[in-house]
C-alpha cells in the first residue's frame, strides 16, 4: 500500500505504521500521529509537521531537511543519522530522543536552536557546526564527539554535559558548565570569559588561544591541557596544583604574579 492509499484510509493517524523509505516530502501532516511508527529512511523534506506526535517513532537516517517540527513531540524517538538541516524545532519535545550522528547543518543558514530544551538528549557525534544554542538547556546531554565549531552557547545550561572529544573550536561557551566533562575536547579559540567551571574536567583539552578571563576554575582538572596563548587573567580559584599539571603555559596570560613566579621557579619547562 502506497502512502496516498494509506492517507485516504486512515487520515492523519499513523500509529505504529510502517512508512520506511516512504516519500512524504512537502506534505501537510500537521498534528499527525506517528507514535511508534517506522519512518526509517523516509523522505520528509520540507514537510509540515507542526504539533505532530513522534513518540517512540523510528526516524533513523530519515531526511527532515527544512521540515517544520515546531511543537512536535519527539520524546523517545530515534533519529540516529537523520538529516535535520534547516529543520525548525522550536517548542518541540525532545525528551530522551536519540540524535546520535544527526546532521543539523544546512547549506542555507546556521541551525537556530535558541532556547531549545535538549536536557539529557543524546547528541553524540551530531553535527551542530555554527548552531545558535543561546540560552538552550543542555543539562546532562551527551555531545561526545559532536561538532560544535563556532556554535553559540551563550548563557546555556551546560551543567554535567558530556563534551568528551567534541569540537568546540571558536565556540561561545559563556555560561554555567558546572560538572561538565570536556576531556580531550578542542576548545581552541573558544570564549569562556567569566564562565562558571566548577569541577569541570578539562583533562587533555586543547585550550590554545581560549579566553578564560575571569572564569571560576574551582576544582577544574587541567591535567595535560594545552593552554598555549590562553587568557586566564583574573581567573578565580585557580591554584598552583592545577596549573603545574598542564601540558604547556607558553604565551599564556597569567596576571597572578605570585602564582606565575612559583610556576616559573618549580615548573620552568611549562614555559618553553
From TrEMBL:
Pfam family, one: Pentapeptide
Gene3D superfamilies xref list: E3 ubiquitin-protein ligase SopA
InterPro entries: 5peptide_repeat (IPR001646), Pentapeptide-BTB/POZ_domain (IPR051082)
Organism domain of life: Archaea
The protein's name: Pentapeptide repeat family protein
Organism: Methanosarcina barkeri 227
Amino acid at each position: 500500500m502506497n502512502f496516498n492509499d494509506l492517507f485516504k484510509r486512515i487520515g492523519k493517524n499513523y500509529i505504529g505504521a510502517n512508512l520506511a523509505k516512504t516519500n512524504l516530502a512537502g506534505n501537510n501532516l500537521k498534528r499527525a500521529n506517528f507514535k511508534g511508527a517506522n519512518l526509517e529512511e523516509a523522505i520528509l523534506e520540507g514537510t509540515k509537521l507542526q504539533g505532530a506526535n513522534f513518540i517512540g517513532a523510528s526516524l533513523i537516517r530519515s531526511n527532515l531537511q527544512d521540515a517544520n517540527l515546531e511543537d512536535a513531540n519527539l520524546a523517545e524517538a530515534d533519529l540516529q543519522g537523520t538529516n535535520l538541516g534547516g529543520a525548525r524545532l522550536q517548542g518541540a519535545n525532545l525528551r530522551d530522543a536519540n540524535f546520535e550522528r544527526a546532521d543539523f547543518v544546512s547549506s542555507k543558514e546556521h541551525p537556530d536552536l535558541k532556547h531549545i530544551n535538549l536536557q539529557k538528549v543524546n547528541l553524540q557525534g551530531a553535527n551542530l557546526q555554527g548552531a545558535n544554542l543561546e540560552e538552550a538547556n543542555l543539562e546532562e546531554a551527551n555531545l561526545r564527539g559532536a561538532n560544535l565549531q563556532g556554535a553559540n552557547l551563550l548563557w546555556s545550561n551546560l551543567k554535567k554535559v558530556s563534551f568528551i572529544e567534541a569540537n568546540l573550536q571558536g565556540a561561545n561557551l559563556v555560561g554555567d558548565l558546572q560538572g561538565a566533562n570536556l576531556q580531550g575536547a578542542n576548545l581552541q579559540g573558544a570564549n569562556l570569559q567569566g564562565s562558571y567551571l566548577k569541577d569541570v574536567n578539562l583533562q587533555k583539552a586543547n585550550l590554545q588561544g581560549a579566553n578564560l578571563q575571569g572564569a571560576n576554575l574551582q576544582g577544574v582538572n587541567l591535567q595535560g591541557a594545552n593552554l598555549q596563548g590562553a587568557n586566564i587573567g583574573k581567573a578565580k580559584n585557580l591554584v598552583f596544583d592545577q596549573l603545574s599539571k598542564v601540558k604547556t603555559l607558553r604565551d599564556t596570560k597569567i596576571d597572578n604574579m605570585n602564582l606565575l613566579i612559583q610556576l616559573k621557579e618549580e615548573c620552568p619547562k611549562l614555559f618553553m
